[in-house]
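In response to reviewer comment 3 from the previous cycle, which asked for concrete evidence that the modeling workflow produces usable outputs, we include below a single protein chain processed end to end. The sequence was submitted unchanged, and the resulting structure tokens are shown without manual editing.
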Amino acid sequence: MTPEELDRAARTLRREWESPDLWAEIQRRIWWRRVGAIGGLIAAGIVVGLLLTPVRRVSAPSASPLLTEEAMADVERTERAYRASIERLDRLATVKLRTGKSPLLAAYGEKLRLLDSAIAQLDREMQSNDFSAHLHVQMAALYRDKQQTLEKVVRHE
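The workflow returned the following structure tokens.
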């Protein structure tokens, strides 16, 4: 089909009809879209405002400062015992790291030096903020990683 034939066919298919409300309907829909978008923005602003508003929590007074001190002392005793057990494991692994010639042992030694550095840095941070639970969780993760690495060194043949 040539372009001219296509043009003639298109003219025969063309139809016109009266639609007096078409422009009014287009304007109404555009207006509602704008109102909907503005309403959505307002709703989003309200939600963000509510999320950023600090929530005040009413908590019951703590039972006794003595219980808190006892709990903290218990945590500190447990941490000291855990550190002591890792120190003993470290002494066993140090001998193996010094005498071993394996590249894997060298990699473990490097990892242990990095862990010791991270532990020392975190320990300095904890001295200024000992009651930070987040720091205690990070420290526990570092010690757990160190313990697992030391166990691998000790088991290495």
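Residues 78-155 form one domain. We consider this sufficient to address the reviewer's concern, and the full set will be provided in the supplementary archive.
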